[in-house]
Write a structure and sequence with these properties.
Strand order of the largest sheet: 2-1-3-4-5
Bound molecules: zinc ion
Low-confidence stretches: none
Distance between the termini: 33 Å
Helix content: 25-40%
Mean pLDDT: 97
Largest sheet: 5 strands, mixed
Oligomer: single chain
Structural class: alpha+beta
Number of strands: 5
Length: about 120
């Protein structure tokens, strides 16, 4: 699967987003090292801080399937990841993140997206 294919999976997932407040639908797709794809969407809530981003939704779903740091090769997302999601991407030790930003498709490592990051 190419990064462009993975991004198309994220675009397709975005249709299922639950975003009645912002109407900003975001999809994310993970490529696991075993070749499986796990996707996620943003889910909003009337209490706005309780919403979850598509990237974290996908990673949480993957964790339920037994995925652990190092098991995810790439993550594609239809928007530029927020700071919190960048921290999650570091935690899961992804190789690369592919995302749409201002009409461009960018590829970065988690370290590039969040330099000098917090670690325990
Ligand atoms: Zn986020």
């Amino acid at each position: 699967m190419t990064d462009q294919d993975l991004l198309q999976r994220a675009v397709a997932a975005a249709d299922a987003a639950y975003a009645p407040y912002s109407n900003f639908h975001v999809g994310a797709a993970l490529l696991l090292r075993n070749g499986e794809i796990v996707d996620g969407v943003n889910v909003e809530n009337a209490s706005y801080p309780l919403g979850i981003c598509a990237e974290r939704a996908a990673l949480a779903r993957a964790a339920r399937l037994g995925v652990r740091p190092g098991d995810v090769e790439a993550l594609a997302v239809t928007a530029s990841p927020c700071g919190g999601c960048r921290q999650w991407m570091l935690e899961f030790k992804l190789d690369r993140v592919v995302f749409m930003h201002e009409g461009e498709v960018l590829t970065r490592t988690p370290e590039e997206l969040l330099p000098d990051s917090f670690e325990l």
